[in-house]
Amino acid sequence: MLQRVLTIIFALLLMALPFSAQATRIKDIAQLQGVRSNQLVGYGLVVGLNGTGDSASTQFTTRSLVSMMERLGVNVDGNVKVDNVAAVIVTAELPPFAKAGSNIDVLVSSIGDADSLAGGTLLMTPLKAPDGSTYAVAQGSLIVGSLAFGGKAATVQKNHPTSARIPGGAMVEREVAFALDPGQDLIYQLTSPDFTTISRMSAAINNHFRAPLAQPQDSSSLRIQVPEQFRGQLVNFIAGLENLPVQPDAVARIVVNEKTGTIVMGEGVRIATVAVSHSNLNLVISERDQVSQPAPLSKGQTVVVPDTEIEMTEEAGNLVVMEMGVNIGDVAKALNAIGATPRDLIAIFQAIKAAGALHAELVIL
């Protein structure tokens, strides 16, 4: 009776707990150690294609089809046409606590020279884990979110017709053993290790329960002691624990992609007082041929004389002083005042970093 009363009080406190607009839940930045998904993979055949399957040169498709037919009791000679069959690799992710009989999504990808998997059906395919054991079996009609049509002179294609999905296409046949032990401590791991975040997470838990239950182990691990009154209500304790708000912290970082000209700046980016001058040099070289023709009745020859014109234009480079940015908005406003394009800003950030005025990590992709 006492445990039920404590559980109800704990639930009411969670409902009344104010949730900060800038904070996030513990379940969104950390996960319980041991509760993880597992990757599954299998080899199978897709049938029912309208002449868009593997060609006869794909020998492993032919051998797989013959082997499957023989297991079904059908004697087949070596001369088999497989343009309506495609060999595929089937992948899936087995979520934690998945029970036998539940369904999971699968991804089907062609490994031969098939043109499209549209309209195909995946035959029964065992899905195995790295230990070699079969944990699920996939089968069903493929959903291809693409199209491909064409002839000898032109083709039209949208997305990738050689990959498809089957929602709920695999049935779990074997469970991954994992059990929550009420007598052991819980260990949470941050998805992005950070000493400040793990310290705030520990303080939020201890302040909420008014007891020193959480103890940081390092920048990514937090050990939590289960209170005695929640030993029999471990699921409710974890559910309430993961809904506590925490303000995560991160290293100030600027990520730039030179291929696409993309720039992403974090909230903590700061730039010291620095003067920046930026200008563009445009050089235009044009050539044209002029014909030099001699006078009538002269012994001269008609020749072609090239004429080269070089025009150079240099835009004015204003020296802009950027004060210490107090937030990312001030930094963006100061850089926009220069009038540089995103690709120019990449070079500017590199120069500011080299000058020691950029107080952030610069990551170039």
List keywords for this structure.
four-stranded antiparallel sheet; six-stranded antiparallel barrel; 365 residues
Summarize the structure in words.
This protein folds into 3 domains: 2-35 and 180-246, no CATH class; 38-172, no CATH class; 253-280 and 318-364, no CATH class. The protein is 21% helix and 36% strand. It has helices at 2-16, 26-29, 59-71, 195-209, 234-242, 328-336, 342-354; strands at residues 24-25, 30-32, 38-47, 85-94, 103-110, 121-128, 134-141, 147-150, 155-158, 163-172, 186-190, 214-216, 221-224, 245-246, 253-257, 262-265, 270-271, 274-277, 281-292, 303-314, 319-322, 358-359, 361-364. The strands form 8 sheets. Strands 3-4-5-10-7-6 form a 6-stranded antiparallel barrel. Strands 2-11-13-12 form a 4-stranded antiparallel beta sheet.
**Terminal residue distance:** 59 Å
Overall mean pLDDT stands at 79
* Overall strand count: 23
Give the SSE string: HEHEEHEEEEEEEEHEEHEEEEEEEEHHEE
Strand percentage: 35-45%
DSSP helical segment count: 7
Task: Bin the helical content.
Answer: 10-25%
**Rg estimate, integer Å:** 33 Å
Low-confidence stretches: 5-21
How can the largest sheet be summarized?
Answer: 6 strands, antiparallel, barrel
The domain tally reads: 3
Shape: flat
Helix/sheet category: alpha+beta
